[in-house]
Amino acid sequence: VKTSLETLILPAGHAAAEAAARRLAAGGLVAFPTETVYGLGADAGNAAAIAHLYAAKGRPAFNPLIAHVADLAAARAIGRFDARALRLAEAFWPGPLTLVVPKTDGCPVAELATAGLDTVAIRIPAHPVAQAILHAFGGAVVAPSANISGHVSPTLAAHVESDLAGRIDLIVDGGPVEVGVESTIVGCFESPMLLRPGGLSRERIEAVLGVALARPPAEAESDDSQPLAPGMLASHYAPRASVRLDARDVEPGEALLAFGPARLPGLDAASAVMNLSPSGDLDEAAANLFGYLRALDAKGPKAIAVMTIPEQDLGEAINDRLRRAAVAR
Ligand code: TXA
Ligand code: MG
Q1: Boundaries of each YrdC-like domain copy (predicted)?
Q2: Superfamily of domain 8-222
């Protein structure tokens, strides 16, 4: 890994979008905000740039990337959309939804980015900075979350900087992201499948489809060599501290990640307390999740106790990320 790059940080704006497009065209790595989390972009057609991207993140090469495009016409040049996929695209793009569809013949996304699969993951982000960069660049940009592989995803430019400074060319700072968890991934297979819960709730997708989303078979998650949504490895998103879920009390020395009214036994002995949403709002909790996990972890507690979060709306994605963070490494 090259760790001696001079990483430029630019505030979002016209000049930054132009600089980002130039760096991408030259094979560089550019971090930029989307509405879900910050992404680390590379030219989707440039295998060498994509190899650098995997190396910069320390990401296993069997874990494929999402191709980001500006509009549906660009998406349809990459993937084949059946009627159901089209309905989802029209209902939710641009937005926090990724669709996994069969590749087109002559799909311009480099093989390395799709890990040899015959499907491709595609998303049209809604964030104006991401849109400006995609328009200025004029092609597809593959972009995983802009963190070291295994760390929690970045919701601020400062998170990207602390993980990747010296390894990438440019960070475009667009301030805090809005959604705070990664996009929901739907596999457009015979029965549409929820491959990753995320920033668009299952409920909203099912309302448009008129059918329930299938769940991936259990072995897809446990078999790390052949995962169905290969990024869904059990110990993703892990902070350094151990994470204790469904906490009904706080043990001495633990930090507390609270949700809603927090009056737990032992609260006074907590080493730190952050509340994802004192009013119990799941959208607010999702937006705060990764930043608060990073902030609590930075204080070096022996463990982070997490209060129960309802398994509905964005709670499904929040609980998914917390369960992964709780898997001991
Ligand atoms: O919100 C997001 O989705 C962010 C922003 C930057 O767009 N990106 C993101 O990318 O979270 P990443 O690389 O951290 O997660 C992409 C996920 C991985 O779990 C990967 O395995 C899955 O998408 N994926 C990519 N291509 C796939 C495919 N053809 N079939 C199944 N899963 C795929
Ligand atoms: Mg990621």
Answers
A1: 14-200
A2: DHBP synthase (3.90.870.10)
